[in-house]
């Protein structure tokens, strides 16, 4: 009997835990990329159309803000259940990695959009006014001033969102999304094998710590420039 079997006698197949780790990383990577792709322009829109900003549009801001607040307020596991018909229409399945990514993105993109809006609001007004005085267009201000100046805050937002998505993927395991959450639910909770639950929790903690360390490093790097 090897040391792992002595420590965790109820775990019969370690390769299954390895596959669950890979599934979690695939869900995290795919959903984070799409979340940034959708949340970044939404956050820019919220910033630009807000009161006193470059293109104030109260009605558009109110609609976008309401949509973001509604999606952010729904608990993720409920959101996954509600979105099952939409998920099936988009990817052809409600389960597994493909079935998890649409609700993960829909749940995380509004959250990230708010972080983007907050990061952009921290850009010094004098820098924006200077670019306007030089005749920069709105697109040029966004691309060459706002986004570069807010890079530290944006990467911090991506880090926070990635960590939130780790939690979302774990919750999704309760309804068959796969990954470490699914493993913990099926074996740790339903089968009363606490070894699976312990290993899953440790692996999720390690993943979160690695994400936080990588994010802190990137943020510190851009703040030094």
Give me some keywords for this one:
single chain, mainly alpha, 225 residues
Structural class: mainly alpha
- Compute the number of strand runs: 0
Count of DSSP H/I helices? 11
* Mean pLDDT over the residues: 88
Radius of gyration: 21 Å
**What string, H for helix and E for strand, traces the elements in order?**
HHHHHHHHHHH
What general form does the structure show? Answer: elongated
* Percentage of residues in helical conformation: over 70%
Pick out the low-confidence regions.
Answer: none
Summary of the model, kept short:
The chain has 225 residues and is mainly alpha-helical.
SSE blueprint:
Elements: H1 3-7, H2 14-49, H3 58-73, H4 76-82, H5 84-91, H6 96-121, H7 125-133, H8 138-149, H9 151-172, H10 179-190, H11 194-223
Structural account:
Helices cover 81% and strands 0% of the residues. It has eleven helices and no strands. It has helices at 3-7, 14-49, 58-73, 76-82, 84-91, 96-121, 125-133, 138-149, 151-172, 179-190, 194-223. The termini are far apart.
